[in-house]
Amino acid sequence: MTRHRLRRSLLAGACGLALVASLPTSASPAPRAAAPGAGASPAASDAASATKRWTTKNATALGTGGAVSSVDPEATHAGIEVLRKGGNAVDAAIATAAALGVTEPYSTGIGGGGYLVYYDAKSRKVSTLDGRETAPASIPRDVFIDPETGEPYPFTPDLVTSPASVGVPGTPATWERALDRWGTLSLRQALKPAERIARRGFVVDDTFREQTLQNKDRFAQVSTTADLYLPGGDAPAVGSVFRNPDLAATYDALGREGTKIIYKGRIGSDIVRTVQSPPKTADATLPFPKGYLEKSDLAAYSVVKHKPTKVRYRGLDVYSIAPSSSGGSTVGEALNILKTKKLSTLPRTEALHDYLDASSLAFADRNAYVGDPAFVDVPLKTLLSKGFARSRACAITDRALPTPTDPGALDGSGCTTAPPVGRNDTGTSTSHLVTSDRWGNVVSYTLTIEQTGGSGIVVPGRGFLLNNELTDFTPVYDAADPNRIEGGKRPRSSMAPTIVLKDGKPVYAVGSPGGATIITTVLQTLVNRIDLGMTLPEAVAAPRASARNTAPPAGSPAGAGAVTAAEPEFIEAYGDQLEALGYVLTPSGDSFTLNAQIGAVAALEFRKGGRVLAVAEPVRRGGGDAEVVRSR
Ligand code: GLU
């Protein structure tokens, strides 16, 4: 199908929608959601009255013609629909991401940012887009310090639910840039399936309700957010249909006018107004520290195109994202360290011991050396060098490496160390998706609004949440910390969208949400698949542990170390053996985690004859959905 015909066919697919709902024109303001208590909610109604909606999930799918895996069946089907109509992997990725903005609004959306990695089959080249949020130019160093106590505000809910933590969104610019550069669809066409889902609604599942309830107290303090997500004062019921007409109108306007409507236009003005004067309810008790976002910050935003990180591992080339994310450098360094070990021949406990310690060592270096390269001199080449990896690998003995361990000396002088710096952040939001097409192009894309529920602030009349990404900076300014707060800077991320090639052709695409556990989840999935003899579905489903160079909790006995968060199933399976080596396994989970699960992988494996195995989580986060264009 030609580019022109494809565009027509996708728009035609969306036209019926425009007929059944009267949309505001792009020039008129979007309608506001009704106030809670005003009779039946516009957002929730009986599922039975709705048109076809995608609710069935497949953890794996094998076939040809292209594939999509994401956490949500509506989003996966949006991508598959684009592929079926002749779109490519980039078109499908943006359609899937836009749909996630509707159905996974607490993890992703145009109010946030992310990183996209793209393999181009024709040139056999891997490229990346850094669509990370940036700090306002005038952000003060002490933005996260409570003037009353002189200490940082409590992270949750105070800092998280705060205009101060909202960075300039990078997701709209990422979508536009990716489509312009590699896609065949216009932004308008790529947004149409998502616009349709927002308008006709999707079926609320347990995860959506749980995530809403988890955020209920803070959402209730922001009128626009309460109106949209707490209709009638409660989280939408499981099985009801959730509609977001404001977001549908926003996507429509964004598609018609392009991202200038955000970076230089009226949606941008709304974002700035919302940050400067958040729509708090009269009885809000949270402090809502002041935000500094200005129109000039939006106008100054640009997506950055870095060279991908690349390491060679067991005959494969592992490509991922370079700083401002620490994902590619940290996974890459850990793989380089593990390359010095023969994991496939080791008993499982020993292989896991190497995995955990390699991860802790790489995290120590990440915390000390990685930040936004526009502001910090990141020694990326050294961090990804074999020599440096050897100087770090010698710290792994037959006992657990006590944590926190110091970062390595950059001159690679053996197991010497530099003083530790930096915070070891965790998080649980975000979403990862992977797509491929019949031509062999591949996308691995992780996007986020940071915390589950982001800043908790919905832009009035626009139907999307703003991010709280700036909480990824170290909250207390330290000139030696590469992740210190600075105006115009991107906070360090852990996102690690990854594509693995063999002889220039894709073998795997993988990524995950989960804050800093993203790094260990991607690393563990690769190790499981490449070294430990698991199939890709097994590698994804296997219980996880996340060693991030964590200090022992206060009150621990002297010498306690090697603190490692782990899923209960991991502790059950390997706890005794690893604790005998000196690990302190603690059940994963924090105040914003529904349960003790680590990550939510979406992955692809490329096989002979153009066949692709698409894999989603079978259980975590309620399971994801993997689909192919043609099953076989
Ligand atoms: N903000 C996190 C990061 O960029 C992602 C948040 C999450 O996955 O919970 O690493």
TrEMBL record:
UniProt entry keywords in alphabetical sequence: Acyltransferase, Glutathione biosynthesis, Hydrolase, Signal, Transferase, Zymogen
Catalytic activity, as annotated: an S-substituted glutathione + H2O = an S-substituted L-cysteinylglycine + L-glutamate; an N-terminal (5-L-glutamyl)-[peptide] + an alpha-amino acid = 5-L-glutamyl amino acid + an N-terminal L-alpha-aminoacyl-[peptide]; glutathione + H2O = L-cysteinylglycine + L-glutamate
Biased composition (Low complexity): 30-50
Enzyme Commission (EC) number: 2.3.2.2, 3.4.19.13
PROSITE patterns per record: TAT
Entries under Pfam families matching the protein: G_glu_transpept
The organism's place on the tree of life at top rank: Bacteria
Secretion signal span: 1-27
Modification after translation: Cleaved by autocatalysis into a large and a small subunit.
Xref: InterPro entries: GGT_bact (IPR051792), GGT_lsub (IPR043138), GGT_peptidase (IPR000101), GGT_ssub_C (IPR043137), Ntn_hydrolases_N (IPR029055), TAT_signal (IPR006311)
Residue ranges of the region described as Disordered: 30-51
Involved pathway(s): Sulfur metabolism; glutathione metabolism
NCBIfam families noted in UniProt: g_glut_trans
Subunit structure and binding partners: This enzyme consists of two polypeptide chains, which are synthesized in precursor form from a single polypeptide.
Family (UniProt): Belongs to the gamma-glutamyltransferase family.
Protein name in the entry: Glutathione hydrolase proenzyme
Biological source species: Microlunatus spumicola
Gene field: ggt
